[in-house]
Amino acid sequence: MALTDILFALINGAATGSAVFLVAAGLTLIFGILKILNFAHGAFFMIGAYVAYSIIGSNPSSLHVFIAAAFAAAAAVAALGFVADRLVLRRLRHVDEAYMLIATFAVLLVCTGVVKLIWGVNYASINPPPLLDGAVTAGSLFVPSYSLFVIAAGLFVFLGLELVIHRTWIGKLLQAVASDSWMSGVLGINVPAALTVTVIASFALAGLAGGLLLANQTLSPILGESYLLLAFMAVIIGGLGNVRGAFIASLLLGTIESGSSLVIPNMPGMATYIFVILFLLAKPQGLIGGRHI
Amino acid sequence: MLSVDRIDAFYGDSQILHGVSLTVGEKERVAVVGRNGAGKSTLFKSILNAGPRVRGRIAWEGKDLGAMPTFRRARLGLSLVPEDRRIFDHVTVLENIAMARYAARPGVELEAPEAVLARFPMLVPLKDRMGGRLSGGQQQMVAVARAIAGRPRLMLLDEPTEGLAPVIVEQLARDVNTVCRETGSGLLLSEQNLWFARQCTDRLFLIDTGRIVFDGLWQDLDDNPDLKRRYLAL
């Protein structure tokens, strides 16, 4: 095993991890504040990808257009988040959690069906935009530029969320609602509105991830499931609802995935599952457990 | 100003309050005293629609509050300081006080959080301390400061002296009296500490197993030593 192989595995792991984090970010945010495990998150990630695909087609003309399409997808999915909140989530805030799980699963099924109706069941593949379709080489090390873009996007979203949650007033307010929604209401904070804002932000993140991760993968109505499992694992290992924890866990999972494909190439995914099981046995509360997002 | 008319309150199937009625006028200071489990906290939470299921009429300024949610009641000028204080531990003392700004009534200008803090001399040096790093007495002071920061018309203070050292209790009594006088807020106080309740209020309701068993002035209670023995002795 050469040094370049290890370096490549590490960078590849960071790219996979960043992609997982992009999906996990919205998932952990909505859990942290509303305590909802949103099964439909993957479906909205997929809708984001399809919306971006409808804008840019299979060959995006430039990096700007590619990124703009991702933000358009974020806006479209955010609007769907508002609708989903009004129609489903808001009605289930005061009933048992099991109903919420079943309801979001139903939303997942509905979304998958709607995607098939609108975009069909055929697979589509999308090329990275110019500037990201090549690779960066250093000696014998070869890194696709799109991987570097995904790493940068993951970092951007992570730092953005950290900044908003820990440094701004709206973040502190949302943390107050997350840690003690009862007292927040007693202090006159409009808790239902804060929860709706969170749902919209979480869905926007799903849509953004869909647009940003669109290239280099097969777009089909089962796309939602592919990242969702890893994203769920990242959210659980990170300590449910904690953004920082989800970020670290995503990178960890990405590195394990990519490292294991180097060491045990015939058993893809195996090392990840073993890691998750062992981790949860040792530290069931996650990396950063607690009441805070 | 506040009128509670024959309310029943429930947690699940168990009924905690039975036909409780009370009124508090503008700027009035009233105590609700009774043993542990008598229903004092349930009464306060019922007034804010913050927990128990309530049957009966709770009116503010003559208007039935109906099913109005908690945060809207807070914005009418009803400010509850819960027994367990519930200071946010992820923000500073000053930011805890700033959280109360959402309770402001339309057209009422709030004091800056620093000015609110200045009313509680004990808190001034703690302004940048995180909420999670306060002693019980400090937490209680912050909770009262936070409640008063929204310029309430009626502050509901639930067992503030529980677990506090006597010297802190005296300080708290002085501060509560001063802020109520200076801000014009009324006070509904739940207490087991009769000394503290007497310092802060003019009249009282005696509550036992979810029913009001006496109301009157403190003097009236003194004239009925039997009441104290029956409802307040341990």
TrEMBL record, chain A:
It holds the Pfam family BPD_transp_2. Its main location: membrane. It is found in: Cell membrane. GO terms for cellular component: plasma membrane. InterPro entries: ABC_transp_permease (IPR001851), BCAA_transport_permease (IPR052157). Keywords: Amino-acid transport, Cell membrane, Membrane, Transmembrane, Transmembrane helix, Transport. It is a multi-pass membrane protein. GO terms for biological process: amino acid transport. One of its GO terms (molecular function) is transmembrane transporter activity. The chain crosses the membrane at residues 6-29, 36-56, 62-87, 99-121, 141-161, 197-215, 227-256, 262-282. Belongs to the binding-protein-dependent transport system permease family. LivHM subfamily. This is Amino acid ABC transporter permease. It comes from Prosthecodimorpha hirschii.
TrEMBL record, chain B:
GO terms for biological process: L-amino acid transport. SMART domains: AAA (SM00382). Signal peptide: none annotated. One of its GO terms (molecular function) is branched-chain amino acid transmembrane transporter activity. Residues 2-234 form the ABC transporter domain. InterPro entries: AAA+_ATPase (IPR003593), ABC_transporter-like_ATP-bd (IPR003439), ABC_transporter-like_CS (IPR017871), BCAA_Transport_ATP-bd_LivF (IPR052156), P-loop_NTPase (IPR027417). Keywords: Amino-acid transport, ATP-binding, Nucleotide-binding, Transport. CDD domains: ABC_TM1139_LivF_branched. Pfam families: ABC_tran. Belongs to the ABC transporter superfamily. This is Branched-chain amino acid ABC transporter ATP-binding protein. It comes from Prosthecodimorpha hirschii. The lineage of its organism: Bacteria, Pseudomonadati, Pseudomonadota, Alphaproteobacteria, Hyphomicrobiales.
